[in-house]
Amino acid sequence: MEDKLTIFVSSIIGEFLEERKAIKQAIEAIPLTKSWVFEHTPASADRLDESYLSKVRECDVFVLLLAKNISHPVRREYETALADDKPRLVFLKDVERTSEAQAFIDQIDVKWSKFNTTEKMQQQVQEAVTDELIKGYRRYRLKATEMDTLADFMERLSAATVMGGDNVKATVGNGAGQVAVGKNIVQTGDITYGPSHKTVFHGSVTGPVHTGSGNIVINPTQDLETIFAQLRTLVATQSQLPLAEREEITAGLSELGTELAQAEPDLGKIQRLKKFLVEKGPWLAAGVNTLFTNPSVVEIVKQAAQRLLGG
Fold first, then answer.
1. Per the confidence metrics, is the pTM higher than 0.70?
2. N or C: which end of the chain has fewer CB atoms below 10 A?
3. Same-domain check for residues 209 and 254
4. Which tens digits make up the pLDDT trace of 173-212?
5. Are 115 and 18 part of one and the same domain?
């Protein structure tokens, strides 16, 4: 890719001084991306409003941060992104809001994430942006090698979460440089470099924390969007498969997600898609079967069966 994909960051600057610096660093750590943050751009002779709205129109992904208030410029940026059909990722700081800000949030038509620390925001932004690029690979014209790079980053990201507290069971990804924080942390996975492998401890940690498998673990109690994001990442990491086959599987996942979201989903179609995905191999079957133990999916399938039987 000759030019990196641009991620436009929108927020009230005064409410997010530290977060905007952190989000810039987080975005630029993602392969293939660069950030556009107003205060980090050179001076321009363009009118102020046009200088930032034109960048919204030119960006690839629009990221919105909201805290207590909403301003006219931020509202215009969001409306411009909406009008130009830009993928919109919204992150809300967990604070009390003005009625105007809450009314704006109530009108947002995409799912948002909530955070209460800068570190949590960085993690959420990296996960959401990377998933959006993997999911929309055709839109962004990504090559197979670029998909592999993003998938590898997502896999390392999922294993690299800084973990805290006591008695935490941590799986640390191979070669990713993750840090597990807490007491009595238990190693999972294999020690890949044998007894000579160097373990670095930070803070109050007891017991060995070596490099583990870094496998993606899907929790059936998570929301469906999160589970599907993990499944897409899992597919993207299968670099041994031809790109066309990975695209076919990803399309099948998208079709299944769309069908499950219907007001009256077709049970036959759901079952056909599940069979198609499960038969792709054990590496995918476990995740798909876990998806179908999600309480929401169980209820959807149950109601679809009742409709089919006239119940």
1. no
2. C
3. no
4. 444 444 444 444 444 443 333 333 333 333 333 333 333 3
5. yes
